[in-house]
Specification:
Structural class: mainly alpha
Number of strands: 0
Largest sheet: none
Number of domains: 1
CATH architecture: Alpha Horseshoe
Shape: elongated
Radius of gyration: 22 Å
């Protein structure tokens, strides 16, 4: 339990945090319509649309002769997205009935920041094969980036019907709902994703963010602790855990999380601001924070019946 001084300190830092913290990429994703006490930086998953390539990036010569699917795929996996895009542009002209060719063109276009061509390519793949789940999922990512959340949910609903066991589908549904401020729907989707894949750290992180946005800070600590336990090297997980801890009055533990954020990414400016803020709070005493035990509580909560109560320590 927090002391009255700790509660007072929490209220004071919340006002400071609301000014000092703002949103980066979305990853993530979407602005919250309901702000937490201390403003957080919503995060983005690695499946977000990339930034367009800078001018002057090396461009391969137009391939001579028939385009090779294998060459295009190799270029894509090597990170040569402009090359892959050119190859699959030619490949889809030569073999317009191959859904996978259009799918790969969509991916390559997406990676070069050409969302218009990406959407068109994925739609063409789906015209050829309406059950092409990968095209439905990646088209939804393009739509989420464009803030067309209802359209994304429509595509993801179809993908979920075709592949009911896909954790990725539910994670993307969660992001779409969270972007619309439908946090209860988002949390249900993230929990479903985690139930399908108990190592889905991004769903854990995003679930923690949704709980923070609902002001349920104690609960938010659990999935964020598990995400950090699985991936200590991801700076955003550490920072978000710090925000949850800070808002429960555990300033010393929050400071350690912010330090871990900076250890993972020394250029994380918001984490430095967060660390400076909590280090200025004078705390007479504070219970030690046990990351492993807290992460275990989250794992247990996911195994418990839906109506069971998990005690947050």
């Amino acid at each position: 339990m927090r002391s009255s001084s700790q509660i007072t300190a929490t209220l004071l830092i919340a006002a400071v945090a609301a000014v000092g913290c703002s949103k980066p990429d979305d990853t993530s994703s979407s602005k919250s319509q309901s702000q937490p006490t201390a403003r957080i930086t919503p995060v983005s998953k690695t499946d977000e649309l990339p930034k367009p390539l800078a001018k002057g990036d090396a461009a391969a010569a137009k391939p001579a002769g028939p385009a090779s699917y294998a060459d295009g795929e190799s270029a894509y996996h090597a990170g040569k997205y402009s090359d892959a895009k050119r190859i699959f542009e030619q490949y889809t002209k030569e073999k317009p009935g191959n859904a996978w060719g259009h799918y790969m063109l969509g991916l390559a276009s997406w990676k070069t920041g050409d969302s218009k061509q990406a959407e068109s390519a994925f739609e063409e793949a789906l015209r050829i094969d309406p059950k092409h789940v990968k095209s439905l999922m990646n088209l939804s990512r393009v739509l989420i980036e464009q803030k067309r959340f209802d359209d994304a949910i429509d595509k993801l609903t179809k993908a979920g019907e075709l592949d009911p066991s896909s954790a990725d589908v539910h994670r993307l549904l969660g992001r779409s709902y969270a972007a619309q401020g439908k946090f209860d729907h988002a949390m249900d989707a993230y929990r479903t994703a985690i139930a399908m894949d108990d190592k889905d750290v991004w769903s854990m992180n995003n679930l923690g963010l949704a709980l923070i946005q609902k002001g349920r800070f104690d609960e938010a600590v659990l999935p964020l602790a598990r995400a950090v336990e699985l991936r200590k090297d991801v700076a955003i997980f550490q920072n978000n855990l710090g925000m949850a801890l800070e808002n429960t009055g555990r300033f010393t533990a929050a400071a350690e999380a912010y330090k871990a954020t900076l250890a993972a990414d020394a250029n994380y400016a918001k984490a430095q601001l967060n660390l400076t803020r909590v280090q200025a709070v004078k705390v007479s005493s504070e219970e030690p924070f046990d990351l492993a035990a807290t992460a275990k509580l989250f794992v247990e909560s996911m195994r418990a019946p839906a109506d069971a109560t998990v005690v947050v320590r």
